[in-house]
Amino acid sequence: MDIRSLDGDDPATIDLLLPGFQETMSLELPGDPPVSEALLARLLQRRHGADRIVLAAFDRDRPAGCTKLGLDLGDPVGPGHGSLWVFPSSRRLGAGTALVDAARAELRSRGRSRLMVDAPHTPAAEAFAAVCGAELRGTNLRNRLFLRGPARNGLEELAARAVPDHRLVHWIDRCPDELVDAYARAWGTLDAPVNGQAEVRTPTADDVRAREAEAERAGHRQYVTAAIDAGTGQVAGYATLFVRDSPMADAGETLVLADRRRRGLGTWLKAQLLARAARENEHLALVQAWNDVRNDAVVALNRRLGFAPDSSWSTYSVKA
Q1: φ/ψ (deg, to 5) at 120
Q2: For the whole model, what pTM was predicted?
């Protein structure tokens, strides 16, 4: 098995790996639309404040699987965190072991001592993790919301429940200049880690613009709804959604400042965002959202909005 390092921002990498990803996801998540170029591009691209390692295992000239890892540039000794896939027609040939070994070696060469990998929560994944000496560190639920039928009516009802002393501002792709600093300050309070991305530290308007450019490069439109305090004009919370040329969109962050919680802001924000995206994109049929099973508030929010879990993914940690 030959291991090659690839550039996740190179369109040629997307073309090379897309058939294997489509084969994999049609098996693992048969209810989803086919994996699109835009979805794979966003998965593999470098993110703001982070480096990205993409390693592919080749059986002769055919990709057998790959792993992608994000490295937080603000934490030079932190872990590499990402995902590993072995394409179905190439399983049981040693590609998974070869990719883990190559990822470990790559991290050691960069002075990093821990590898964290997400994988579907299945007996096969657990057995493979045990062979690699990996430790289970957490579980994430993948939730789906269908945007047609009764669920759509429920969203519209929740979206109509305004929260006193707040107004909503909506935009696509680019935050209004007059809000960008307040939006960056709100983003800076986010305390939930995101797989393979840099820790939120003290973001500025430039950081907001860099994240907007990321979405554009990967062929995504970033929908944002923000709640504005009517008295101060400050951003009290926001929710994001990434829409692409596919029937499925990805929920991003939903954040409400700590002193504004338990007022219904999160429900109002996210319901408005989802309902608006559904109205403006006739092709959009469902949204997927990921959340840590230990994050009770987000789990409860998604249930109120009509999301239902369809699979769980585990995070494993192993020494590099």
Answers
A1: -55, 140
A2: 0.92
